Each structure stands twice: as C-alpha cells, then as structure tokens.
Amino acid sequence: MYIGEQLINPTDDRLRLSAQLGCKGIVIDSRPNRDICNDDGTWDTARIVALRERIEGFGMKLEGLALDVGSILLDSLRDRPKAEAAADRLRQNIRAAGQAGVPMLKYTVAMVGITRTGVVDGRGGMKCSTFKAEEYAPDSDARFSYWGTVLPEDGIGGSHSPVAAMKTPEAGGQVMAAEVGGISEAEGWTAIEYVVGSLLPTATEYGVRLACHPHDPAYPPGGLNGVHHVLGSLDGLRRFVALAPDNPFHGFNFCQGTIAEMSRDPTACVLEAIREFGPQKRIYMVHFRNISGGYLDFREAMPDDGSVDMAACIRAYREVGYDGVLCPDHVPLSDVDPGRERFFAFCLGYTRGLLQTA
C-alpha cells in the first residue's frame, strides 16, 4: 500500500508538491477532463499518454482517471436514446484509456449528488460537511450537497457555490433529489445494471478496471423524496459484485467514509467490508477518510478525528493483501487553508505514519 492523491487539472507545481509529500500514485479526477478530449468530447489516446508520461516524470504513477458518466443512469430510465449515445462515448473513452496504458477508471452511480444537509464546526473551527436525515430539506440539499466536482462551499466563502454550479458540466449530470420524481429500488438496480452491462465488456476487452463509488450517503428506509440509494449498504455492495462475479475488472472505488456511513458501528462495518471484498480483489483504490457519527447522522472529519479506527483499517487492508493506493478525500474546509493543501498534506502524513507503524 502507498499514499496518493486525487487531483483536478493539476499544474506541474501541484504534481511536484504531491511527489514531495511522498505520493506514489495520482488519480486524475477532472470532470469533464478537457485536457484529454477531442472536439467531440471523446478522449484522445495520445493526450492520455502525454498525461501519463507527465505524471511519471514526477516519479509517480497514473493510477486512473474519472470516467464522467454524467446523467447516463437517470437517462437510462427516462431517455434511453440519450443514454445510448452516452454509452457509445463512454466506451470510446474506455478504449482510449486502455490503449494509453491507464489501468483503472473510477465512476459514480450517484444520480442526485452526494447529499448533505449543512456544515458544522470541527476541531479548531474547521468547517465539516454533515448529513442528518431528520433535518433534510431541499433548500439545504441545494446549498450543502456535492455535485460532481463541485464542493459544498455555499455560504462559507469558498470558490463557487453548488447552487451556482448546478446544471453546469462540472455538476456531472447530477440533480437534486426533489427534481427526480422518485427512483424506486428496482429502478436503481435497473440503471446500475444498464451501466455495467453497457461498459464492462469494453473495459474487459481493453484491460481497464471499472471502480464504482457506492452511493453517498446511505438513505433512510423509503429513501429521500422517493429516491433510493441501493448501494448504500453492504448487501447492496454484495449484489453489485454479483452482477459480474467472475469478472476481475468489476469492482470498487472503495470509499471508506461512505461505507462507514452505512452503519451505527462504522468501524465494524468498514472492517467487514475490507475483509469481504479485499480477498475478492474488488478494491481497486481507497478513499481513506473518516467520519464522526454514523448511519443517517454524521459529519466529515480529519482522519485522526472521527469514529472509525483508522489504524485497524490499515491492518485489515494488509491482512487481505491490498497493495494499492490510499487517497485522502472529503477534507473539511477552512478559511486559513482555502486550497486545502495543508489539510491534504496532514492527511497524507497521517496515513503514511499508519502504514509505517502497522
């Protein structure tokens, strides 16, 4: 195992900083990734090769790219021709990534963004995104949820607010739960099965692992606004694996924080998931992050300041033979570290320390 980062459109100086912090791998999270796109929006193999070689020039590995699936899941239920056109584009992108030597593409099954209901103070007054199901309201959803690569900074002095960025390409085709008109459990699985069935054969042919990020957060029974998060439980993750049980290119962007949110005993839930999906080789990358709280009531936290025993998780990853990248994610906000570089550096150093002592 080793530390790495997810970066959006990194400059050379930012890549140099990652290398100086000890990162061995980089996941490019740009969505849309205009630097590698042709005029028609498909990825260009030569540009991906140039990106990979640029990262390798700093002594790091290009672990993978974000496959921007946009609104394909919702469209597969409501506008099938639009979904089919998106699937064609995504298959082309998978082919280009495989030809360029990219081993993994991560994607999300979120249709309605990453739901949050507010921001609370954490250690030293840092601002921590929170989800309390009993406080859910469409207005707070609009202000405080994540949309694609847009962070929940509205009203906190951040760059641009989710409200302003919704309906833009950076929102990743995601909409508010109140706008969807309901997604039943059966429809949720139909959409996921459509995406897996449409993309996995191409990924398998070109040797690219598809790393699925589960639903964040787990929703209460009955969902929110009639929208169900079917990958919001370990049983959901098991059913997802069972869609292609013998295919080694079908697995997870294993978001440890998201899995912790599935249970009122977050450490036990995360350890169970590691010990189940690790030996199956379904963990392709890890979002090594923590939360304070648990199911339906939590806040995001620095890795040393939450409810999950992070040292026990490192030991579990070692036990099951995981040998990939650990990336910080969902770092809290602070006006004294607006770019989060110091916070991310802390997360990386903390994780490196755990690796050295485990």
TrEMBL record:
<dbReference type="InterPro" id="IPR036237">
    <property type="entry name" value="Xyl_isomerase-like_sf"/>
</dbReference>
<dbReference type="GO" id="GO:0008927">
    <property type="term" value="F:mannonate dehydratase activity"/>
</dbReference>
<protein>
    <recommendedName>
        <fullName>mannonate dehydratase</fullName>
        <ecNumber>4.2.1.8</ecNumber>
    </recommendedName>
</protein>
<dbReference type="InterPro" id="IPR004628">
    <property type="entry name" value="Man_deHydtase"/>
</dbReference>
<keyword id="KW-0464">Manganese</keyword>
<comment type="function">
    <text>Catalyzes the dehydration of D-mannonate.</text>
</comment>
<comment type="similarity">
    <text>Belongs to the mannonate dehydratase family.</text>
</comment>
<dbReference type="GO" id="GO:0042840">
    <property type="term" value="P:D-glucuronate catabolic process"/>
</dbReference>
<keyword id="KW-0408">Iron</keyword>
<dbReference type="GO" id="GO:0030145">
    <property type="term" value="F:manganese ion binding"/>
</dbReference>
<keyword id="KW-0456">Lyase</keyword>
<dbReference type="GO" id="GO:0008198">
    <property type="term" value="F:ferrous iron binding"/>
</dbReference>
<dbReference type="Pfam" id="PF03786">
    <property type="entry name" value="UxuA"/>
</dbReference>
<comment type="pathway">
    <text>Carbohydrate metabolism; pentose and glucuronate interconversion.</text>
</comment>
